[in-house]
Amino acid sequence: MPLSEEAFTALVDAGCLDCKSKKLTVETYVAQQLPLLGGEVYGSPSWGYKGEDLVRGTYRIACAGCTKELFTATACPRCEAPDGVERALEAENDFPLPTSCTGCGSELVTATAYVPAVVVYEGKRAAKARTQTAPEDPGFHAYRAECKQCRNVAERRVPCPLCTLA
Ligand SMILES: [Zn+2]
Ligand SMILES: [Zn+2]
Ligand SMILES: [Zn+2]
């Protein structure tokens, strides 16, 4: 089951009950937007998620002090398929990043992908999300591409773009 926003807030509010640390490491699957030129990342990616998406994508919360695990989820945060998190983290991207727009031929395309990210919380205060996962790494799952020029969109919904289960 994905965490509810109430349960998430209660967890980060309470912190670690063992070592009393308020600093928690949240691991979550969230959307990142990547500017592309000819199919290659061109410029800095930006985050494209809201608070509720961060909560929904959360698959692990651990204490940053003593590393005690406070929450884990194994089902896919998007489709709830069993063991979806493990499959998502291990699988390679299978939505090829487009080299140009199919509508107008422009090479400037913005891709949206699910990536595993780490967000450090101190009480309710969250640091900026960070990810080590690039398009060539396992765990990176693009699912949408939008042309900067004509706004033509290619998007995948089925199978689940995150855990790739039909
Ligand atoms: Zn602790
Ligand atoms: Zn276009
Ligand atoms: Zn899924």
**Number of helical regions:** 3
Bound molecules: zinc ion
Beta-strand residue percentage: 25-35%
Order of H and E elements = HEEEHEEHEEEE
The dominant shape is elongated
The low-pLDDT segments are none
What composes the largest sheet?
9 strands, antiparallel
Q: How many angstroms does the end-to-end distance come to?
A: 20 Å
Query: How large, in whole angstroms, is the Cα Rg?
Result: 17 Å
Mean pLDDT: 95
Helix content: 10-25%
**Helix vs. strand class:** alpha+beta
What is the domain tally? 1
**What is the number of strand segments?**
9
Architecture overview:
This protein is an alpha+beta fold and 166 residues long. The protein has one domain. 14% of the residues lie in helices and 34% in strands. The chain has three helices and nine strands. It has helices at 5-14, 51-57, 84-90, and strands at 23-37, 40-41, 46-47, 58-63, 69-72, 108-122, 125-126, 141-147, 153-155. Strands 1, 2, 3, 4, 5, 6, 7, 8 and 9 form a nine-stranded antiparallel sheet that branches. A hairpin with a 2-residue loop joins strand 1 (23-37) and strand 2. The mean pLDDT is 95. One zinc ion binds at residues 101, 103-104, 106, 147, 149-150, 152.
